[in-house]
Amino acid sequence: MESNLITEDKQKNKLEKAFEILKTMASKPSGLIGLTIVLFHVVLALISPYIVPYDYKAISPNTMLLAPSAEHWFGTDSLGRDVFTRTILGGRTALTVTFFGSLIALLWGGLLGIFCGLVGGKIDDVVMRVVDAFLSIPWILAMLLIVSLLGTSTEVLIPALGFFYGKGIVRVARAATHDVIAKDFIVSARARGHSNMSIIWNEIIPNVRDAILVEGAMRWSWMLLGFSSLSFLGFGVSPPTPDWGLMISNARGLMSFAYWSVIAPIVGLSSLIIGINLTADAFAKALGIDRSTKAPV
Amino acid sequence: MLLLILKRIGLGLITLFIVSLITFVGVEVLPGDACTTYLEREAYGAALDACIKRLGLDVPAYERYLDWASNVVRGDFGYSLSGEMPINEVLGPRVKNSLVLASVSILIGIPLAIVLGIITALWRDKLPDIMISTITIFSMTIPEFISATLLILIVAIWLGWLPGIVIIPSDATFYELLSNIILPVVAISMIMTAHMARMVRSSVIQVMASDYVQMAILKGVPYWKMVFRHVLPNALLPAINVVALTIAWLLGGVVVTEVVFNYPGLGRLVIESISNRDLPVVQALAIILASIYVGINLIADLMTLMLNPRLKSLQIRK
Amino acid sequence: MNEIIESVKNLSIGFNSQKGKQISILKNVSTNIKKGETVGIVGESGSGKSTLALAMMGYIKQGLFPLKGECLFKSEDLLKMSSRQLEKIRGRKIAMIPQNAGQALTPNLKIGYQIDEALRLHTDLKKTERDKKISELLNKVRLPSPETMAFRYPHELSGGQQQRVAVAMALAGKPDLLLLDEPTTGLDVTTQAHVLELLRFIAKDTGTSMIYVSHDLGAIAQVSDRIVVMYAGEIVLEGPARKILKEPIHPYTYGLLKSIPKLSLAGLPDSMPGSQPQPGSINEGCSFYDRCNLATDNCKKNSPDLEHIKELDTNVRCFNYKELINQNNNLQTSITKKSNNSEANEVLKLKDVSISYAKQKFFDQLLNKISDQNPTVKDINIDIKKGETIALVGESGSGKSTILKSIAGLLKTKDGQIKFENDRILSSDLKMRNPNDLRAIQLIFQNPDESLNPNHTVEQILSQPLKLYFNLSGEELKKNIIDLLKKVRLGEFYMSRYPRQLSGGEKQRVAVARAFAAKPDIILCDEVTSALDVSVQAAVLNLLQQLKEDLGTTYVFVSHDLAVVRAISDRVAVLYQGRLCEIGPSQNVYKFPSHPYTEVLLGAVLEPDPDIKPKLVAEDIVEEKPPEKGCSFQGRCPRKIGDICNSEVPPWQIGENGNAIRCHINIEELASLQQ
Questions:
Q1: Do B309 and C83 touch (CB under 8 A)?
Q2: CB-based contact (8 Å) between B223 and chain A?
Q3: Residue B90 has pLDDT above 90, yes or no
Q4: Interacting residues of A192 by C-beta distance below 8 A, sequence separation 6+
């Protein structure tokens, strides 16, 4: 009964803490704007299949390249599809791919990084050298190669993106772990004779968690950038799936007379990237982590 | 000191070796070999046999790797599949074109980033900082293909000031190139400058809060003298490595920008060779791009070593 | 002599809190600095002393701003000057010697350049004259080989040398007023005494006025003509140094002086309850109210003004100061501690322990051979009795913490054995020790900020050893935690707090509670009070002593502070460069004859008494490695007798008091030399 009370207390504590962090993030205008944009996009992505006015893949020669009007708010594209519909659904694609991609990146990057930081020595050296080698192949080349050989389905894209964007998290997690294990409270736990697992779980993870989460949030915005670049080059999701990068790429050639079909996805993509970025920055600041001196690798 | 430099170079070479292994193994592991991938539906009979023979796919993988690697060390990347010409000849003009684009962007970007970073740091939270910082956040987060597309839409199409697409042969001279690369350079350096300016800013802010800067003020050192003698050397030193990493990372952006502007450089070659499934060329590109990455980082390491008195005397003492 | 050089008038400095409230960290401070005089400003961390010192150079830290008042230097207000005007004053009229010269010297500029910069800014000398002046200055601050020193970078110098460079830099502009902000804090005891001696010499030699800011009444006592005591942003007492130190008439100063452990006094110092209030937390009444034992209802509602008492030439901020006049015989008292365990059994034995930090070479590793012939710590033999407090004393690099770590099993020994209870050998590998041995030996660290997990509440921190060793849970666990908190005099409500919500003293109490949670036989204390303020330090020392008397715990107490060691320990072992120099009952170690190193250490201790001056007998050279052979102290020994010290390890000699000294000089001879 009593212990139940304590755990309940703890849960309440965690919720309160999360709320506290959100409040700090929203207390500055940049954080508030970021949160609002991200929230807007997420809600839109969740409800988009139920609210779109047209079928995203319905091709109709009668409605090609119409300018914005009451029926077609953002006009239509070269195949006569409604740009508003496709823009809203494009956000769904982008968020799904990059969210799960970031999750994978966070998992393998965080775990490998913590592992390297813990074991140190030769194993750490070798792993970091291999990670460095992977880093030195431009991500775009590697991604293009994988996608062109394995196909452009989301089953390929998500793990591939997750893999390439996890490299940076390895470094951050490793550095944070290195810092923490030198602290006296770890020495104290070791001297008391706690098991390694208990030290990792109770003492190390809670202290590196923040740094890794912030890095993950940052990765998310970069992954979105990378993913849309791939789509733009024609190596992202395959048509007719609505996707911002692809839409921009297709409409680009026609923009001298049908600029609307390119403006809508640009606004969608840019606002989401900026939103995630501002949110990640505010998140880092709320947790007291300065990450402006880090390279985006 | 010399030992340390050699060590850094050695580490760079090891990295390149691992990269070559990764690309080689990667191509081996992925479904299909170079010939079936390239020939696709036509991968049967005489055509396939001829291709296999030409690429030497009939010998074991490790022998092929050794053979390929020793050739690469001598600067010979073998033959491309599509053009059926030496890869070196394919690469030559492309490397030159991309180098021009990248170096012009870096030459403009780095000084601009340093100046912007210093201005924003010294006028922290004042109007210049807020304005520049807002702009940098935008240009940092918006993908190159969007900024490039918007540049074309506004400058080339609506205003009609500059050509929207680069129309030059891939072996154009340096001067022919220069007049055509204004928009691509702007697109690339925008994002790079923004990243670096932010790093310089926070580095300068950190140093400005240090004890020795307070001491310099209390010693009566005039403001600008303090900034140039006490702040900048110490603030820019740690930024060197970070800047190098950023430049290397942004090589990916060059690919996209080249495609948008139809610029005949390495980036477009990447897309072309991958679309054509020309794996030997892809391998060559991976090695070259990785060497550029390793090279830039090596230069940064060496610069830091030369400039940091702490590391310098450490080495001498040893 | 009576010309006023700088005067602070009604100065208040503050900041805006996040809730938009204006909070002052300096309240209505007024004082005058006369020509040629040295004023000591003393206070604990957070008392506003550094803010005051910086304001006296017209410098306000970012985030702070002056609320009212002025800082008049030769009747011009520094706080109203333009930065152009200030540049002409800073370094030329008023110069600063910073706290941590290692961080205050610009890392990328050579020493010579940094001094030259000051000369160029503040004198009209030509290049060649300046070069000459630089060596002159470096010579004046007694730096070795001043000619080559100018070409070195700050990081190539030792802490003491960096501090001297900072002094030279400050003197370059021939200032009228020198501001010293904790100039000796963080230096080793002997180095500190040397730097202080240098500063005193300079004050006399140049006739410069000085403002000496420090938390250390010992250092202040050595240099000051007049002392200003600060508490919670206010001046609470101000007057001639001797009066303040011998007859303090403010309850805070009185308590502070009593809480300082003194060499001349065995036993524990009196402690003051509580800690200094946070800025902005006190809105009415006297800021010392809740720690004061003279407080009345009047003190709670009204805050006293600074009152001038003519006959004592003193300003005091207290309603009830009269009660302290002529009370001062009590200053020299202390709490006697119980320790009569001379017959007790030995609980821990260190036998021929050597510890090496040297990395093993690859081949030696293969052959399982440790090649280091000159280990960091060597030949340590100490037997520790049950219930005693043994102290390991020495400066940085003496190996005292290293020994502690290997007792805890955190560092492997190279040679020798550590025996616990009935001569059972403890493995030098932590993983090989049995859980009960691990429970029996607990550690308390120097800095509670680092030793408490910032992500855990006090409850979580204390439940860890209880769960691990005793498998407690639920109600029982909670009860035990509350008991532990009570033991270290913390209330139940601390359970849900995070370390960042506690003051330094409270954090260290939690760390003490965590160690005692294991019901240990031995507690290893690594500099446990050196990160704390003096008044808090006394309270923690008293707590440790009380717990020991109640529970019969044995302490191994590592410290660099001889006075603290004198207060708490039963036996003392003095270490230099990882070798034992002297060991014995503490009252005897503090008496002569002593090992020459102990003599040097004792001579360098700064007492808060203007009549006891430090004796400087040895150079403050920093040795990086112990000598290969001979006596460990040969490099600095003031009583070195010749080649024998360099070639042979000195023998142990037992003095008549029962302390063992390791020296080539005959012990009777040593006694007569030291009289």
A1: no
A2: no
A3: no
A4: C438, C439, C442, C464, C465, C468, C518
Query: Is the pLDDT score of C341 beyond 60?
Result: no
Domain contains A24: no
In A, minimum Cα distance to C410 occurs at A191
Whether C105 contacts C165, CB under 8 Å:
yes
Q: What is the ipTM of this complex?
A: 0.83
Return left, alpha or beta for C72; rule: phi > 0 is left, psi -120 to 50 is alpha, else beta. beta
Task: Specify if A1 maps to a domain.
Answer: no
Distance, CA of C637 to CA of C577 (rounded, Å): 13
Alpha carbons within 13 A on the beta-carbon side of C497:
15
- Cis amide linkage into residue C596, ω under 30° from 0: no
Please check whether residue A140 lies inside any domain of the structure.
yes
pLDDT at B41 over 70: no
Q: What is the pLDDT of residue C140?
A: 87
Q: What domains lie within chain B, and their CATH numbers? A: 92-317 (1.10.3720.10)
Q: What residue ranges define each of the domains in chain C, with the CATH number in brackets?
A: 4-93+175-327 (3.40.50.300), 337-529 (3.40.50.300), 570-675 (no CATH)
Give per-residue pLDDT as tens, B154-171: 887 777 777 666 666 656
Domain count, chain A: 1
Token pair, residue A284, equals 């880092």
Please tell me the distance in Å from C86's CA to the nearest CA on chain B: 7
Chains in touch with A (3+ beta-carbon pairs under 8 Å) read B, C
pLDDT at A25: 83
Do the beta carbons of residue A75 and residue A69 sit within 8 Å?
yes
Higher local confidence (pLDDT), C11 or B74: C11
Residue C321 φ/ψ, nearest 5 degrees? -60, -25
**By the CB < 8 Å criterion, does C104 face chain B?**
yes
Query: Is residue A134 a part of any domain in this protein?
Result: yes
Q: How far apart are CA A232 and CA A269, in angstroms?
A: 12
Query: Dihedral of CA B249/B252/B253/B254: which sign?
Result: positive
| CATH code of A257's domain | 1.10.3720.10
C155:B209 CB<8 A? no
Is the pLDDT confidence value at A291 over 80?
A: no
Instruction: Assess whether pLDDT exceeds 70 at residue C654.
Output: yes
Q: From CA A165, how far away is CA A188, in angstroms rounded?
A: 35
**Chain C environment of A28 (Cβ under 8 Å):** none
Token pair in block for residue C324: 């302290």
Smallest Cβ distance to B234: which of C86, C108, C166?
C108
pLDDT in tens, C430-457: 888 888 899 999 999 988 888 999 889 9
Picking from A150, A229, A293, the nearest residue to B203 by CB comes out as A293
pLDDT tens for A71-117 read 777 777 777 777 788 888 888 888 989 999 999 999 999 999 999 98
Counting one residue from B and one from C, how many pairs have CB atoms under 8 Å apart?
Answer: 79
Q: Which pLDDT value is given to residue C340?
A: 53
Optimal mutation site among A27, A185, A207, interface C, most CBs of chain C within 10 A: A185
* Beta pairing, strands C389-393 & C571-576: parallel
Long-range CB contacts for residues A64-67, cutoff 8 Å, separation at least 24? A65/A254, A65/A257, A65/A258, A65/A261, A67/A258, A67/A260
pTM to 2 decimal places? 0.83
Three state DSSP letters for C332-388: HCCECCCCCCCCCCEEEEEEEEEECCCCCCHHHHHCCCCCCCCCCEEEEEEEEECCC
**What is the residue-wise DSSP string for C396-453?**
TTSSHHHHHHHHHTSS--SEEEEEETTTEEEPSSGGGS-HHHHHHEEEE-S-HHHHS-
**Band of pLDDT at residue B258, cut at 50, 70 and 90:** confident
Residue B51 has pLDDT above 60, yes or no: yes
Pairwise CA distance, residues A117 & A112, whole Å: 9
More confident call, B11 vs A205: A205
